[in-house]
Amino acid sequence: MKIRDFNAVTPPLDTPRMLDFLYSLKKLKWKEGTEHEHQIRDLLDDYGIVYEYQPNGSQQFPDFNIPSRWGTIELEAKSSKQGHPTYNSGRPHKDGLYVFTSKRHDSTTVYWGRDVLKDDKRVLYDEYLAKQKALLQEYQQKPEWKDDRGFDFYNREMYTQSGGKDYTDYFTHKDRNTCEENVYNHFR
């Protein structure tokens, strides 16, 4: 049920219903991309949970805004044929609630962005991106940068994971249960 007015949430999303919804999310089988989003949307509808779908557009975070007594929950659907998702032009959002489904495992897990990318690494990324932006601006000031064809350049963030499945597989990772429990505990 799509919401038009976040101040009119009825019935309110309480702890038992939210936890039941989360446990149901974990039972979802693998679906790719938009199909995964649609099965989450169908589950939200089944639970009578009010939400706004793609509040910032189809290619922007989050996929769902869910008003609640815990504030607005920004829920993002991720799917992959592998055991880890891809974060194309943006890293995991710190307060984003992720629902990730994997074809390899035919399973689904939930986690907060802050649990898969820690603050100290975010700080390093921010420092690097600031330097990278400054360097690009320095080069763009050179007269040779402009040409008669309009070519330009922009930096695009791409976040990958490496180091083997002990680091990258969200379903066999040593912190999987901790990440899921952090989600459940938030809503208790």
Q: Could you explain the architecture of this structure?
A:
The chain has 188 residues and is of the alpha+beta class. It has a domain of 128 residues: Trna Endonuclease, Chain: A, domain 1 (3-Layer(aba) Sandwich). Strands 1-2-3-4-5 form a 5-stranded mixed beta sheet. Strand 2 and strand 3 form a beta hairpin. It is elongated, with a radius of gyration of 19 Å. The relative contact order is 0.14. The model has no long low-confidence stretch (mean pLDDT 92).
Which labels suit this protein?
188 residues; alpha+beta; five-stranded mixed β-sheet; 6 helices
Strand content: 5-15%
Q: Stretches where pLDDT falls below 50 for ≥5 residues?
A: none
CATH architecture of the domain at 15-117 and 162-186: 3-Layer(aba) Sandwich
Strand order of the largest sheet: 1-2-3-4-5
Provide the structure class: alpha+beta
What is the count of helical runs? 6
What share of the residues lie within helices? Answer: 25-40%
- What is the strand tally? 5
Can you summarize the main beta sheet? Answer: 5 strands, mixed
Order of helices and strands: HHEEEEEHHHH
Q: What overall geometry do the principal axes of the alpha carbons give?
A: elongated
In the CATH scheme, what's the topology name of the domain at 15-117 and 162-186? Answer: Trna Endonuclease, Chain: A, domain 1
Alpha carbon gap, first and last residue: 24 Å
Please tell me how large the radius of gyration is: 19 Å
Quote the average pLDDT.
Answer: 92
